[in-house]
Amino acid sequence: MLDFLLTGDAIMALLTLTFLEIILGIDNIVFISIAANKLPEHQRGKATNIGLVLAMIQRVVLLFFVSFLTSLKTPFYTVNLDWLHIAVSWQAIILFAGGLFLIYKSTSEIREKVETPNHDEDNIKSRKISSLSQAITQILIIDFIFSVDSILTAVGMTNGLHPNHNYALVLMIIAVVISIVIMIAFANPIRKFIDVHPSMQVLGLAFLILIGFMLITEAAHLSNTSIFDQTVGAIPKGYLYFAIAFSLFVEFLNFRVQKKQQQTKH
After folding, report:
1. Does 243 reside within a domain?
2. Has residue 173 been placed in a domain?
3. CA 206/CA 198 separation, integer angstroms
4. How many domains does the chain divide into?
5. Where do the TM regions start and end (predicted)?
């Protein structure tokens, strides 16, 4: 286990996944804060911390469930046509459906952030909360909604890293725990950073579109899909890591340029 966690692929997957989990968790923090701010001041910190801990527990439970489904690799149905061959398994179905969900969710989130950036916040603000238990219930619902794309991202980043499925599960749990701990410790600074640099969150959502596409191709590859005698190959995860690292490097350069321009104006 330790040998696997210290490999280059595992470390890159852990770093990338932790970063994406934090970016995906920003909206979660914002909505938890909105719900918590409706409570008396002495209960707000408690509600926020409870909400983030519950988010971690929910994600770990969902990880076990989704990981179990993706471990079911034996085909239960085969499509054999003159031009199409697919060996359908639960693993392929979960990866394919997860990929479609990530692409849909990311695209709609990007559109919403551009056209109606305060739509979700306004919905939560309009709901009445009068007690800590009501706030925690609402936070649990919010957590669950945000846990789905988080878990699918984790599966997409770690699927196929090791023949033993439990190794990838441990890696996903470590990434989720680290990201939640960081969010609990630095929730406000992270939120302020994203407010100043909203492009980081859009960039994270764009990464999810890439991961969604990768999940779909991986589902086709694992189900031995062939179309007109052309088989679908797997996309090496190294390409994805490079694309994410390169995009972050360009964004970092953009930050530096903007900072220098602001200093020059002053």
Report:
1. no
2. yes
3. 13
4. 1
5. 12-36, 48-71, 83-104, 135-155, 167-190, 202-219, 239-257
Cβ within 8 Å of residue 240, ≥6 positions away: 16, 157, 210, 211, 214
Q: Tokens 């797997």 — which residue?
A: 234
Per the structure, the complete domain to which residue 186 belongs is given by 2-237
Q: Is 196 exposed, middle or buried (0-12, 13-18, 19+ CB in 10 A)?
A: exposed
User: Residue 79: CB partners within 8 Å, gap ≥ 6?
Assistant: 85, 86, 87, 88
pLDDT in tens, 34-82: 777 777 777 777 777 787 788 788 888 888 887 777 777 888 888 888 8
DSSP string, the chain: -HHHHTSHHHHHHHHHHHHHHHHHHHHHHHHHHHHHTTS-HHHHHHHHHHHHHHHHHHHHHHHHHHHHHHT--S-SEEEE-SSEEEEE-HHHHHHHHHHHHHHHHHHHHHHHHHH-TTHHHHHHHTS---SHHHHHHHHHHHHHHHHHHHHHHHHHHHTTS-SSHHHHHHHHHHHHHHHHHHHHHHHHHHHHHHHH-THHHHHHHHHHHHHHHHHHHHHHHHTT-EETTEEPPPPPHHHHHHHHHHHHHHHHHHHHHHHHHHHHH-
How many other β-carbons are positioned within 10 Å of the β-carbon of residue 187?
20
111, pLDDT greater than 80: yes
pTM recorded for the entire structure: 0.72
- Token pair for residue 74? 């034996």
CB 152 within 8 A of CB 98: yes
Confirm whether 60 is domain-assigned.
yes
Asked if 95 and 159 touch (Cβ cutoff 8 Å), the reply is yes
